[in-house]
Design goal:
The complex is a heterodimer of chains A (188) and B (165).
Chain A (H helix, E strand, L loop, with lengths): L1 E5 L3 H13 L3 E6 L2 H11 L3 E5 L7 H11 L4 E5 L4 H10 L3 E4 L4 H49 L3 H15 L3 H12 L2
Parallel strand pairs in A: 1-2, 1-3, 3-4, 4-5
Helix pairs in contact in A: 2-3, 3-4, 5-6, 5-7, 6-7
Chain B lengths: L1 E5 L3 H13 L3 E6 L2 H11 L3 E4 L8 H11 L4 E5 L4 H10 L3 E4 L4 H24 L6 E7 L5 E8 L5 E5 L1
Parallel strand pairs in B: 1-2, 1-3, 3-4, 4-5
Antiparallel strand pairs in B: 6-7, 7-8
């Protein structure tokens, strides 16, 4: 597991790195502000990010929000500030954990483990939902194309479907693409 | 937001209740062991649970597992166990947070809020992934032994189109 850490205070950053490495976790990138954290998230492709909240240029919460927009990974924040307003912003941004400073080494590992596991679970469920939505969208457009074919060519439902399938097989394009093209042409 | 807390040590339990209430949570149930936690989760329907691990009878991880099996809710562990095996078991059970004792007040509310929000996202994704089918085709048996084909389409607005196929 490769972790990106972002912390503007050098001593704390070194401490974070040492704590993670002693637990067998690889630190793949170290940022000292939010903008750098974003750039390193892009170039080092970490599995998880551990971000301080108060940092120069871009704070950890805004950095987390932008990271999640670009390529979702589990994010845990650490901060000396835990006022409700900050926590709310962080939670809205999508972080999986929020630890108070001074951080304790023992707290880091369980926070990372739960963040990672629940993030993976959420990703899996979302992918399943997406593929279901895709299947439903395909079925809808195929039905429509079939109906148009039946009306314009005087085909039976079975024949219309066979034509669509054959077009898909011979062209090597998915049924959805064929059906969409057909709907676009025939519906005009 | 209604929280169930499970903790066998009375003083810690009182402390937890006071802290949570100070942060705007309502403690809807207090359990002293795992079994009681499972029962109270059933009867008081909390929005989230904060569970100790080492408790008499059923431990907190097993209690979490049983709670999840009955009704999905965000669960955060609060424990003195810092060994990897306990963390691993809790993570496998599905917990959304794992805080260590002695706990710090500042860590509690953020962990609970994050757990609730991320759990809500998970439920939303699950619901999206289990939408009922848009079309159902059935055959209705009639008294004279025929079976009448029937097609039911669910429209985007939730209304139904029903027609004999």
């Amino acid at each position: 597991m490769r972790v990106l850490i972002a912390e503007d205070e050098t001593l704390i950053r070194l401490d974070l790195r040492a704590s993670l490495e002693s637990a067998g976790i690889e630190v793949c990138a170290e940022a000292s502000n939010g903008v750098e954290a974003l750039e390193l998230a892009r170039s080092a492709q970490p599995d998880i990010a551990l971000l301080d909240v108060k940092m120069p240029r871009l704070d950890g919460i805004e950095a987390a929000r932008r990271m999640l927009d670009e390529r979702p990974i589990p994010i845990v924040l650490i901060s000396a500030f835990t006022e409700q307003r900050l926590v709310e912003r962080a939670v809205d941004a999508g972080v999986f954990g929020y630890l108070s400073k001074p951080f304790r080494q023992a707290d880091l590992i369980p926070a990372i483990a739960t963040a990672r596991a629940r993030f993976d679970q959420l990703t899996t469920v979302r992918e399943q939902a997406d593929s279901l939505a895709e299947a439903l969208a395909t079925r809808k457009v195929v039905e429509r194309a079939k109906g148009l074919l039946m009306a314009s060519q005087g085909l039976t439902e079975q024949d219309a479907f066979t034509r669509l399938r054959r077009a898909s097989q011979t062209s090597g394009k998915p049924m959805r693409v064929i059906a969409e093209a057909l709907v676009e042409t025939l519906a005009q | 937001m209604k929280v169930l807390i499970a903790e066998d040590e009375t003083l810690i339990r009182l402390d937890l209740r006071a802290i949570l209430e100070r942060h705007g949570f309502t403690v809807c149930a207090e359990a002293r062991n795992g079994l009681e936690a499972v029962e109270l989760a059933r009867s008081t329907q909390p929005d989230l649970a904060l569970l100790d691990i080492r408790m008499p009878g059923l431990d907190g991880i097993e209690a979490a597992r049983r709670m999840y099996a009955e009704r999905p809710l965000p669960i955060v562990m609060l424990t003195a166990f810092r060994d990897g095996r306990a963390v691993e078991r809790a993570v496998e059970a599905g917990v959304f947070g794992y805080l260590l004792k002695p706990f710090r007040e500042d860590d509690l509310a953020p962990a609970l809020h994050a757990a609730v929000a991320r759990h809500r996202e998970l439920l939303t994704a699950r619901r999206r992934g289990s939408e009922p089918p848009r079309r159902i085709e059935v055959r209705l048996p009639s008294r004279d032994g025929h079976a009448w084909p029937l097609r039911i389409d669910r429209n985007g607005d939730g209304s139904l189109d029903i027609q004999g196929a």
